[in-house]
Specification:
Number of domains: 2
Oligomer: single chain
Helix content: 55-70%
Largest sheet: none
Shape: globular
Bound molecules: zinc ion
Number of strands: 0
Length: about 240
């Protein structure tokens, strides 16, 4: 059982490494397959034996082997988180449930990081989430869970949009965030999506307050909403999938 766990974790880390490629290249419209990994500073190709998730970062103390340029801490963190998601899912859920979880959390991780970096959510990733959700909704015969979740999420955030618009003449989040809430509602179901929206609003306000206090942003700066939505959604799902209705 321990061996299975170790292999699951390693596979997760390898997938995490691939997600890093998507996060880095997709917003720049670069191919995610060719060319192979290369250093962003010296542009030298990274050979496969120096491209081992987590291990390379630790052995090279976070620097490029050739030019000693600093490698972003984002790379090992995404690898580690993905490894943990894989290990968690295969310990907690049955096989179809686990596959659903790792597929969705993988794409959501990419969406969160791209929105954090670029303040945009690629449509192609949201479409991919939708396709996976439709497949598993049909496979699990779970139509009401998905439908009520989507309606609850979009209804609640739609109401928040309207109230904020009437009171402050401001849009609280982007159109992409609205679609993301719809997708998270399909995955989580009606109760969990409501808790998720509430928790993510709280997280965003706290993060905003801290950044204002540290003078990293101005009062008028926009905050990406997808990262806190996704952190909340995955946490709530992991804490108790039974309330996912
Ligand atoms: Zn380099």
């Amino acid at each position: 059982m321990l061996i299975v766990g170790i292999f699951t974790f390693i596979f997760g880390c390898i997938f995490g490494s691939f997600y890093n490629v998507i996060i880095y290249r997709l917003p720049h419209h670069q191919s995610i397959i060719f060319p192979g990994s290369h250093c962003p500073y010296c542009k030298k190709e990274i050979p496969f034996y120096r491209n081992i998730p987590l291990i390379t970062y630790i052995l090279q103390v976070g620097r490029c082997h050739q030019c000693k340029g600093k490698i972003s801490l984002q790379y090992p963190i995404i690898e580690l988180i993905t490894g943990i998601f894989w290990l968690w899912s295969f310990n907690q859920y049955n096989i179809s449930h686990a596959v659903y979880f790792i597929l969705i959390t993988g794409i959501l991780t990419c969406i969160a990081m791209i929105d954090f970096d670029q303040m945009e959510i690629p449509i192609i990733l949201m479409l991919l989430v939708l396709v996976i959700e439709i497949f598993f909704t049909i496979y699990n015969n779970d139509y009401y869970h998905s439908l009520y979740g989507a309606l609850a999420g979009i209804g609640y955030l739609g109401a928040v949009f309207m109230v904020t618009w009437v009171l402050f003449k401001k849009q609280p989040a982007g159109f992409g965030d609205l679609i993301l809430v719809l997708l998270l509602g399909i995955w989580l179901g009606p109760i969990s999506i409501l808790i998720t929206i509430f928790l993510s609003a709280l997280l965003t306000v706290i993060a905003w307050g801290i950044l204002i206090f540290l003078q990293k942003i101005n009062h008028n700066d926009r905050m990406p909403f997808a990262p806190s939505l996704i952190i909340s959604a995955i946490s709530i799902y992991m804490i108790n999938p039974a309330i996912s209705f």
